[in-house]
Amino acid sequence: MQITTVSKVYFSPCGSTANIITHMAEAAAAQCEAPLSAVDFTLPAAREKTYRFGPEELVFFGTPVYAGRVPNKIMPFIRDGFLGGGALAVPVVTYGNRSFDDGLVELRNLLEDNGFHTIGAAAVVARHSFSMTLGAGRPNEADLREAALFARRVAEKAEALDGAGVWEPVAVPGTDPPEAYYTPLGIDGNPAKFLKAVPKLSGKCDKCGLCAKVCPMGSIDREDPGRITGICIKCQACVRKCPRQARYFDDAAFLSHKQMLEQNFTAAREASYFV
User: Most buried residue among 130, 163, 226, 238 by CB atoms closer than 10 A?
Assistant: First the structure.
């Protein structure tokens, strides 16, 4: 079939998912000689509308994995905010060197339920949002080259399909349907409960307001950035993007879980691709 548009669609608080999806979509667009469009639904304003796609479109759809699943506060918008209209789709998750657990099968199912036809999928390692060292430097140049090669394979598959055909969803690992979230553990091996942890503010802050602008939940007060007004999903966007390094987490359970991850998941993982 002829692909008339390739789209990159992503939720990417810290930028790694956007990077991977962009490399994939650009490679596929070049392969198909098709224009490239983009939907970045990271910030709240982008989640105030419905996005519609249609036949002869190829969509690379990405999100990071949180606790082994699609981020639970963003999942309802993925479920309700996108109408596939028969478009071909490639679910892509990024994960911080531990595991993508059931995140990929969950994203695939959401897209299939929304009227997309999934023809490829990927789980790619990125630096863990909690850590400076876990998955550091990922995705690297080799990861990005591999992602582009994968995308070209998917594009070739899409072009070879009969537009009137019926296709099975791409096969991916995981419990289908997903049943549980990963339970974060502390360094002592016991569950680490830090749902209520929020980023603190040091004296380095000059109230530039950048942290409020990049918060995907809109939960940081623009006038008083030390005030958290809503849900914190621990994405670390405010910590990573603060130019003065004025944001930090000091919750004991959060820090214990971070220490456990850095102790037990240092071995480099490889990306997984499914076509």
Answer: 238
**17-49 residue pLDDT tens:** 999 999 999 999 999 999 999 999 999 999 999
Instruction: Determine the CATH number of domain 5-180+268-274.
Output: 3.40.50.360
Q: Which helix (H) or strand (E) covers residue 1, if one does?
A: none
Condensed to tens digits (0 to 9), the pLDDT of residues 208-245 reads 999 999 999 999 999 999 999 999 999 999 999 999 99
- The Cα 197–Cα 233 span in angstroms is 9
Q: Is the pLDDT of residue 163 over 90?
A: no
Cβ contact 119:154 at 8 Å: yes
**What Rg, from alpha-carbon coordinates, does the chain have?**
19
Parts of the chain belonging to CATH 3.30.70.20:
200-250
pTM over 0.90: yes
Q: Which of 69, 78, 58 is nearest to 11 (CA)?
A: 78
Q: Check if CATH label 3.40.250.10 holds for domain 200-250.
A: no
Antiparallel, parallel or unpaired: β 82-83 and 117-118:
unpaired
